[in-house]
UniProtKB/TrEMBL annotation:
Catalytic activity: ATP + protein L-histidine = ADP + protein N-phospho-L-histidine
Location in or out of the cell: Membrane
Pfam families xrefs: HATPase_c
Keyword annotations: Kinase, Membrane, Phosphoprotein, Transferase, Transmembrane, Transmembrane helix
Protein name: histidine kinase
Residue ranges of every copy of the Histidine kinase domain listed in the record: 246-447
SUPFAM superfamilies referenced in this protein's UniProt entry, alphabetically: ATPase domain of HSP90 chaperone/DNA topoisomerase II/histidine kinase
Superkingdom of origin: Bacteria
The keyword Membrane is annotated on this UniProt entry: yes
Amino acid sequence: MKLDSIRLRLVAMGAAAVLGSLAVAAIGLDYLFERHVRRLAIVELSSDLDQLTAGLTQTENGLALVRPPSDGRYRQPLSGRYWQIDTPQGPLTSRSLWDATIAMPEDAPRDGHPHEHLLPGPDGDLLLVLERTVFAPSRFGPEGVRILVALRNGQLETAAHAFVRDLAPYLGLLCLFLTVAGWLQVHVGLRPLSDVGGRIAAIRSGTAARLGDRFPAEVRPLAAEVDALIEAREAETNRARSRAGDLAHGLKTPLQALIGEADGLRASGAGAEADGIEEIAAAMRRHVDRELARARIAASAPTAVSSPTTVIARLMSVIRRTEDGARLDWIIDADPHIRTRIDGDDLTEALGALLENAARHAATRVSVLVLRDGLIAEIRIEDDGPGIPEARLDDLTRRGTRLDMAGPGTGLGLAIAREIAEAAGGGIHLANRHPGLRVILSVPISNLTAS
């Protein structure tokens, strides 16, 4: 994927969004799990606080704890779990506090409900403290007692962070899964645009005529606009062809009149003047034919299609009636299933010039073979005439060299035939045979149906 592709942008943005979302989720899970662990710790500390309250009793020597909590951590020095009871005779502490005490704030609540604090512990760590002040004059005396249990707060944070660390590989897998899913979503979502590009390429290559409407609803208006543009271009092509025909008719008639005037001058004895007029008129006519053919080629539609077999049959019905065509043996071998990506009138122009040239120079026989070579259709025209001098043949096959070998009145000639073939994506190749000349007109194959 290219850096400037829509697909890469969408995938990159989706991956960034997934990564950011999972990072935020990890932070949120860390916070929520820490709160959950804290609530569980408060529940556990509250249970221990109730045990301390229930186990405290008045003795002859003052208050004493007869039933301490059973958790062994209260007996392990500096374990992080502590309890303390502030009595008028002095504090009672868990063995885990060793010789230290927890300094409680002076504003002791007197409502009897547990209260939470974050206070420094004996080893400098913060403690989560749950404390309660109990007033029971008959049992604890008139001043009451202050009971607290504590847990090292860092243990809660460590548990929460450990949870996130354990969760990290699964978040990574989830990130990978969501990124791949996003890529698949983008790939499937943008596939219609690739299909549009493929259909346009098919139209350019002549294998399709329109985009059609077999697209999702979001892409269908684009396809309809492209098809409308193609239709408008074909309509303009037809108008261009009509204008070319009108121009040909408008120019050739005056030129023919000039030739008639030249015949009149020759009859009156002005032969030199008549030859000059005829030469100029013939040159003008060749230029008109060449430019009109180029105009038609430029206006050709990319979806044009024709059948070489049909074109050859139509041309042979005319050539066989000419003087040159009637004296020859014509051998036609054409595959009727081949369709070429070229307008039928343009193919008629090109093949007409080549067949007329072969008929004029052949001795006894002309063969026409139409075959398929991959994606190219080859139309081979071979005659048994004298051929072309090798030096001249090199000139004729060089690009940009004038190829019009025909005399006046023979139509477009090889030059226009080559231009027609090259405009369609093919070309012309000439080679001497012994005897005769072989001309190969190549044009691309079309998968469309010829009209």
